Structure formats: structure tokens, C-alpha cells
Amino acid sequence: MLNYSEIDSILRALVEPTRRQILERLSRGPATVSQLAEPFGMTFAAVLQHLQTLEACGLIRSEKTGRVRTCRIEPGGLAPLADWITERRIPAERHLDRLGQILAEADQSPPKVQDQEKDEQT
User: Fold this and answer.
1) Average pLDDT, whole number, for the chain?
2) Where does the chain have alpha helices with state H?
3) What local confidence, expressed as pLDDT, does residue 64 receive?
4) Deepest of 38, 84, 101, 121, by most Cβ within 10 A of its Cβ?
5) Distance of alpha carbon 85 from alpha carbon 111, whole angstroms
6) Phi, psi of 65 (to 5 degrees)
7) How far apart are CA 16 and CA 60, in angstroms?
8) Can you tell me whether residue 73 is helix, strand or coil?
9) How confident is the model at residue 102 (pLDDT cuts 50, 70, 90)?
10) Residue 48 to residue 87: CA distance in whole angstroms
């Protein structure tokens, strides 16, 4: 069973463009908070709040060595969201596959009597 509160927190975190950009940067490898803050015109404290949100929902993890905090992507962080999407995608694909079969069968069936009568009249 999926944990919807976990999915909700991931979606809330991803709604913010700055957090998505931070994740994008971290997908290339670990970075310090200073490196992550550099491209944004915001205070260090604001960047820390974004990082705390990402860490709280399990998308990233950080560790502090001395005065330097380094962040990295949490490999399974998006798994709950991916599982939720998959659970909705598979039934939808099955419905579309079935629709395709029905349409293919309709194309192969002989014309109806009314269609034959129209052909004979012309």
C-alpha cells in the first residue's frame, strides 16, 4: 500500500522551481550548500530552508563535516512517486490496448447490410 502522505510531501517539495533546480544540480553529483546557493539570488538561510524541505521528504540527504554541509541525491527518493504513477499508468495502458484491439477488430469485420445496400444503389 502506498503512503500518500509521503507522496504528498514529495509533490509539495517539487512544486517549487528552486527546489527542482537544486535537485537538477545534485543529479550531477554532490555539492556543498554554498555551491547550491551560488546561482540563486537569495539568502543562505532561504537556500537552507529549501534543502530542509527536500531532505524532510527524502529526496536528498546531507552530512556536515566541520563547517561544510554537503548534499546529495537520495537514490530511492522518487520511488514512492514513481510507484504511484506506475499504478495509474498500467491500467490506463491496458484500456488503451483494449480499445486498439476493438478498433482493429472493427476494421476487419465485414460491412453491415446498410453499407452493402448503399453500395448497390450507386
Assistant:
1) 87
2) 4-14, 17-26, 33-37, 44-56, 79-108, 113-121
3) 95
4) 84
5) 41
6) -120, 110
7) 15
8) strand
9) confident
10) 34
